[in-house]
Amino acid sequence: MGGHVRDSEMASLDMQVLEKSMIFRSHARGDRIFSQGDDPTGLFCLRSGHVLLWHKDSFRYKTAFRVVGPGEIMGHRSLFGDDAHAATAQALTSCDVCHYPGDVVLNLVDQYPSFARCFFRMLARDRGPRDALVLRGQHIPIRVRLVNLLLVMMKSEHCDKGGACILQLPVMRRDIAALLATRPESVARAIKQLGNERVAIFKGRSVTIPNIDVLYKESSRVVVPTEARSSVTT
Amino acid sequence: MGGHVRDSEMASLDMQVLEKSMIFRSHARGDRIFSQGDDPTGLFCLRSGHVLLWHKDSFRYKTAFRVVGPGEIMGHRSLFGDDAHAATAQALTSCDVCHYPGDVVLNLVDQYPSFARCFFRMLARDRGPRDALVLRGQHIPIRVRLVNLLLVMMKSEHCDKGGACILQLPVMRRDIAALLATRPESVARAIKQLGNERVAIFKGRSVTIPNIDVLYKESSRVVVPTEARSSVTT
DNA sequence: CGTACCGTTGAGGTGAGTCAAAGTAAGTGG
DNA sequence: CCACTTACTTTGACTCACCTCAACGGTACG
C-alpha cells in the first residue's frame, strides 16, 4: 500500500500475481455465476459463451439489463461499491469464466493510476441498466424497444453495412421479454409484426435484416405526438 | 504524475490546491448548471438548494432520474467516463454550487488511492438512473411508484419515526411526473387516491404522512398476481 | 382584473398485460 | 427411429391502467 510504483512497471511482476490468483471455471447453461444478494468476491471475466444479467425487484419481477459476451467483465459494480450483487448472472450458453479475487484487484487499482483510470471509465460508462432508458421506457412501444435491442445486439456482431445481414440472438424469447421489460407474448406479437412488414424476419434465434437503415429509421421514430414534456421551466 | 505520495499527507497541500481552484456560483430557479450533450468540465457540489437531473431521449421525451440535495455531488459520471453529459442539471430552487475543475480532481484521484476509492464507491453505487427500476418500471402501478418516491425523498429529511411526519417536496407535479415516467394528470389522480385513503395527504408541495409504516407496506406490495417471471431456467 | 402557469377532473381510446390453449421444437429413453 | 416428455413459442379473447385531449378551478403576479 505505502509506496507506489510507476505505471510503466505494471506489466511485469504484478500482472503475474493477478494471473496467478485467477481461477478458471466452466459453467453449463442455466448455471449462476453469481446471484443477487451475494457478497462480491471479485471480478469475473467471460472468456466464451454468453451470460445474462438480471435483477429481481421487490415485486419479484425479473428484469434483464445486460447480455454479457466473450471478453466482457461483470461483477465490477458490486466489487467497487462494496455492495451485495444487485443482479444475478446466469449462463445463457455453456461458458468459461475467469475469476479474479477482489483483494488482488483492489490492490492493483490502488497502486496503478492507469489501471484505476480504466475502471473509472468503465464504471462511469456502464450505467448498469442504462440502456434501460431506451429499452425499457414504457412510453416507447414494444415494437420500437425490440428494434433498439436488435441494434444493440448488432453492435457486437460484424454486419455487412448497407446490404442484408443475419443476426444470431444469444437469447430466447423469454429473455428478450425480460430485456424489454415486457412479456413473451408481447414479444411474439411484435416479432410477427416486424416480419409482416419485412423489417426484420425472425426464424428461431436468427434474425434476417434486409435493410439496416430501416431499423435505424424505426428506432428513432418519434411516437410521442405532442411536444417535448415538462420540467422546471420551458 | 510520476511518484506518488502517502495517503495520510493528502489533507495538507493538495487539498488547498483543490479548494483554491474551486469556483463558487449561484443559480436562480430554472437555471441549468450543465446541459445534456455538454463536455464535462469538472465536478459539481451542491451547497444549498435543489437540482433536478433529467435526460431527454431520442424521442424528445424527458425523464428525470435524480433530485440532488445540499451536499451532494453531480457530474462525476461524465467526468470519469470522459463522456458528454448524459443529463441536464436544472435548478429547482435558487441554489449555490461549487465547481471543481476536472483536471485538478483527476490529478488528485491519480495520486491518492483513498481519494480514488471514495469515488469508486460513489460511481459503483450511483447507478445513475437505477432507482429507475423502482420508480419507472411500468409493471408497477403509478400509485406505488409515487409511494416509493416519497420514501426516497424522506430519506434525506429527518422524520419522526412512528408518528406522523410532514415532508416538503422540492418539486412540482410536472417534475414528479417526469421522475415517475408518467404524466401530471396521472400523478394528480394517484395523489387524490392516496389522500382519500389517508395514506399521504398532499397540500401543494407539502405532504403529511400519518403513518410511515403504511407507506412501507404499500411500497413493497406485490401487485403481480402470478409467480416470478422468466429467464433461462426456473 | 387580466394573464399565465399550475393543478385537477372528466371522457374516451388503446397498447399491452393476463389467462388459457394450441402449436412447435428439443431432448430422452426404449 | 419413433413415442414421449418437457420446455419454449405463438395465438386469440378479454380486461384494464394509463395516456390523450380538453376544459375548468386556483393561485401568483403584473
Please explain how this structure is put together.
The structure is a homodimer of 234-residue chains. With 234 residues, chain A is α+β, with helices and mostly antiparallel strands. Chain A contains nine helices and eleven strands. In chain A, the strands form three sheets. In chain A, strands 1-8-3-6 form a four-stranded antiparallel β-sheet. The longest helix of chain A has 15 residues, at 142-156. Chains A and B meet through β4, β5, α2, α3 and α4 of A and β4, β5, α2, α3 and α4 of B. The structure holds a DNA duplex (30 and 30 nucleotides).
Specify the number of helices of chain A: 9
Strand content of chain A: 15-25%
Structural class of chain A: alpha+beta
Largest interface: A-B, 75 and 74 residues
Radius of gyration of chain A: 20 Å
Quaternary: homodimer
Give the topology string of chain A: H per helix, E per strand: HEEEEEEHEEHHHHEHHEEH
Instruction: Enumerate the strands of the largest sheet of chain A in spatial order, edge to edge or round the barrel.
Output: 1-8-3-6
Shape of chain A: elongated
Name the poorly predicted regions of chain A. 223-234
C-alpha end-to-end distance of chain A:
52 Å
* Total count of strands of chain A: 11
Largest sheet of chain A: 4 strands, antiparallel
Helical content of chain A (DSSP H or I, runs of 4+): 25-40%
Mean pLDDT of chain A, to the nearest integer, reads: 82
SSE order and pairing:
Two copies of one chain form a homodimer.
Chain A lengths: L12 H9 L1 E5 L4 E3 L7 E7 L2 E6 L5 E7 L4 E2 L1 H6 L6 E4 L3 E7 H10 L1 H13 L6 H4 L6 H15 L8 E4 L4 H7 L4 H13 L4 E3 L2 E4 L2 H8 L15
Antiparallel strand pairs in A: 1-8, 2-7, 3-6, 3-8, 4-5, 4-7, 9-11, 10-11
Chain A binds a DNA duplex (30 and 30 nucleotides) through helix 8.
